[in-house]
Amino acid sequence: xxxxxxxxxxxxxxxxxxxxxxxxxxxxxxxxxxxxxxxxxxxxxxxxxxxxxxxxxxxxxxxxxxxxxxxxxxxxxxxxxxxxxxxxxxxxxxxxxxxxxxxxxxxxxxxxxxxxxxxxxxxxxxxxxxxxxxxxxxxxxxxxxxxxxxxxxxxxxxxxxxxxxxxxxxxxxxxxxxxxxxxxxxxxxxxxxxxxxxxxxxxxxxxxxxxxxxxxxxxxxxxxxxxxxxxxxxxxxxxxxxxxxxxxxxxxxxxxxxxxxxxxxxxxxxxxxxxxxxxxxxxxxxxxxxxxxxxxxxxxxxxxxxxxxxxxxxxxxxxxxxxxxxxxxxxxxx
Length: 334
Ligand code: G3H
Ligand code: 13P
Ligand code: ZN
Fold this sequence. Notes:
Layout: H1 14-23, E1 27-31, H2 35-48, E2 52-57, H3 58-64, H4 66-82, E3 90-97, H5 100-108, E4 113-116, H6 123-139, E5 143-148, E6 153-155, E7 158-160, H7 168-178, E8 182-185, E9 202-203, E10 210-211, H8 217-226, E11 232-234, H9 242-250, H10 263-270, E12 274-279, H11 281-297, H12 304-327
Parallel strand pairs: 1-2, 1-12, 2-3, 3-4, 4-5, 5-8, 8-11, 11-12
Antiparallel strand pairs: 6-7, 9-10
The structure holds glyceraldehyde-3-phosphate, 1,3-dihydroxyacetonephosphate and zinc ion.
């Protein structure tokens, strides 16, 4: 059954992004796959009055079922109101859509925003496929994110060993031809918990901690200059908090040399035309760290609520921290 996102109480990204670019902050785009993640995201957004993007990957859709996810998002809007958030601004977004059919299906199923990620295709094919998705989505007032440049690591089934930074000289032509509403660019972030090898990092002589190479802010600046005020998106923006990596490892995990993007770099990006910052791995780490700790300390527990409750609390704490201390989106949706 077809449904419009408007009937579900969701919003698209148009107004939200325009405000964020102007205001020098970024909207959190948190991936979710299950109820506990969704509860934590909505509680965090409602408490901080932050607009929020609920992201569903193709993998999440296969894991949880598209219909269920749609009603979970609708439920999230009602839950947010119940929590005292008078005008919740919640987007349901397809993350890394890899075909026209998938994007169309999400538009028809109540998503308010879709990403068509044709970044691994040759330029002209990327333009063609993105334009086709935009044509359909805009008929339904659904906004579209596209991508130029390739991120290292895994993007659902698309994987690349190396990243190719976005070429600023291509962005005007791409946006003009595709009419996309926002553009994901590659400036050195990547997906997952292993964004850099220790060899790529330097060691801070004071703290002894590994410091990853800086993001390519020169590329971001050049893109901003070409497309003044146009909404830019940053994928692969988990910071991989050391405390969660340590907690996982302490309680039986094996996450050697997990390294993310330092938060001060993301803070800097959020103040620019970057108006959407994608975070998935940090939520996975928070959840897994809390579950591991709880089960190690309470070996007799077998009721999932016993270990998922602290996991949910840990994720909520992490989301609130990102919203207030990294993205600056708190108080922007009252
Ligand atoms: O971009 C990738 C997101 O973290 C989603 O990951 O495809 O494993 O759900 P997934
Ligand atoms: P992380 O793996 O850094 O959380 O990135 C998530 C992402 O970009 C989802 O599209
Ligand atoms: Zn991504």
